[in-house]
Write a structure and sequence with these properties.
The chain is mainly alpha-helical. The protein has 5 helices and 2 strands, in the order βααβααα.
């Protein structure tokens, strides 16, 4: 995944630029960003930090690191989760609704309308 194999640590790697060595402070930053994003990268890194201690390091392209750490590239996921959690009464999809049946639905609505209209006209006389 990194280091001896010569590959970038981050999975969707564009392979551009030189690889850099990221030490414990950079790894801790990646761990906290991973927790925000909700992926499992922080568990992999935390186990490496636990086994190797402060001498842990990873090799990655600076561009791949910046793409992973970018908040603007990943904000859509977070915004979507916030919207879904704050909007429980959202409008159902067409495929989730019952089809309109004219005989059933029109007459039910028309009867309700006529009952309301008759109560209004009786009250106004």
């Amino acid at each position: 995944m990194d280091g001896k194999t010569g590959n970038c640590f981050f999975a969707p790697c564009n392979g551009k630029g030189q690889r850099q060595v990221f030490k414990i402070s950079g790894i801790n930053t990646i761990i906290s960003r991973s927790k925000e994003k909700g992926d499992d990268l922080h568990t992999i890194l935390a186990s490496r930090v636990a086994s190797e201690g402060d001498s842990v390091s990873i090799h990655a392209h600076k561009n791949c690191y910046c793409n992973y750490m970018s908040t603007s590239r990943n904000s859509g996921v977070k915004k979507r989760k916030v919207f879904e959690s704050n909007n429980p009464g959202h409008r159902p999809l067409k495929s989730q609704t019952q089809l309109f049946e004219f005989k059933r639905d029109y007459y039910v609505e028309m009867n309700a309308f006529l009952r309301i209209q008759s109560t209004l006209s009786v009250g106004s006389k």
